[in-house]
Amino acid sequence: MRSNFGRKAVLVAALMASTSMAQAEDVEVLHWWTSGGEAAALNVLKEDLATKGIGWVDMPVAGGGGEAAMTTLRARVTAGDAPTAVQMLGFDITDWAVQGKLANLNDVAAAEGWDAVVPAALQAFSKHDGNWVAAPVNVHSTNWVWANKSILDELGIAQPTSWDEFVAAMQKVKDTGKTALAHGGQPWQEATMFDGVVLSVGGVEFYKKAFIDLDPAALGSDQMVEAFNRMATLRSFVDDNFSGRDWNLASAMVINNEAAFQIMGDWAKGEFLKAGKVPGTDFLCFRVPGSQGMVSFNSDQFAMFAQAEEGAQAAQGEMAKAIMSPTFQSAFNVVKGSVPSRTDVPNDAFDDCGKQGMAELSEASANGTLVGSIAHGHANVAAVKNAIYDVVTAQFNGEYDAATAAANLVSAVETAK
Ligand code: GAL
Questions:
Q1: Per-residue confidence at 270, pLDDT binned at 50, 70, 90?
Q2: Ligand 1 centre and the CA of 214: distance in Å?
Q3: Whole-number Å distance between alpha carbons of 330 and 340
Q4: Second CATH level (architecture) for the domain 29-139+299-349
Q5: Protein residue closest via CA to atom 6 of ligand 1
Q6: Which CATH number applies to 141-296+355-416?
Q7: Distances in whole angstroms, Cα of residue 371 to Cα of each of 3, 39, 292, 375, 417
Q8: Share of the chain above pLDDT 90, in %
Q9: Among 79, 310, 341, 380, which residue's Cβ finds the most Cβ atoms within 10 Å?
Q10: Can 29-139+299-349 and 141-296+355-416 be said to share one CATH topology?
Q11: Is 90 in the pocket of ligand 1 (CB under 6 A)?
Q12: Which atom of ligand 1 approaches the CA of 38 most closely?
């Protein structure tokens, strides 16, 4: 038996260790990675940091797309209690940088050579005024379809390559009484489908004119009416219980043979993998038919909030360095469904969908067919993004027709920008 003195010594040592960890090495991380696949990927990060002696204080705020997380963040910053690191998308990063709330990561970025390996499309958000303020952990893209292979095989449906073939395939599924399109009725999910639909209608030129340049003529054009018509077509293929459903539950419908297709970013692949499903065998991944060769991307970055204490600053730097290491980028993105945020990571460890995603990202980047996701904050500031959400969701839910939606889009964007 250990003596009283011995027990006390162990306790004191443990206390000292935990205190010094808390002061010097903890990172508090605000994020919205709460689904099965997302949590599995987050664990890769937590465990990697643990091996470097960086403690993890978890601050999860559920809700795909991160709107709820951003609301919590605003409250925390207002209270003068910003977390150390925050999962963040696109223009939200710029917004916090403009407000002067983010840390400067230039030292670690220079030491690790980030400038040379992070694609310019990501640096546009990771840097502000020439200073690194965030570390990009991945690149997702939204114009993907996830399909149940056994349902397609049973019905003799080939992978659709055009919008019309896609509609015919969904009709065939619907005719059997099964759900053709698994969908969760939340504004960000409708907007995610809209990313791919807009590309399928008018390509990147139309996408950019309407959603990057916010050109009123493009926003109110016949092509936009057609995009909304396609959204109405998609609406006719979802089940009756779609309202409010979380995206991962929609993925589960495809995984569990209850539905044939889901249009969703490649974080959906994380759910399939978590369920033990294999691409090409159990499920198919392909671009929203009509948007082949184009990529609407969103990159999760960890924005670092300025910290007063040196220990916290050091932990931030260590975390950023760990996130950007090529081996971590491979290990993490294999699980998350995304692809690496640096161009020099080998694709060996990735499955076929991941290899396709990596190849298409670099091709799209070289060909000028890479665009920021409207739905995930890489095309516009939050106010404009939310205005677009409102119109897309209202029309999807039958509040008005396609022509009215296009007209409303023009005025909603005009007011928000
Ligand atoms: C996206 C994010 C992804 C994934 C998804 C659903 O905005 O970039 O990493 O988490 O939301 O939660």
A1: very high
A2: 24
A3: 7
A4: 3-Layer(aba) Sandwich (3.40)
A5: 64
A6: 3.40.190.10
A7: 66, 27, 13, 12, 19
A8: 93
A9: 341
A10: yes
A11: no
A12: 10
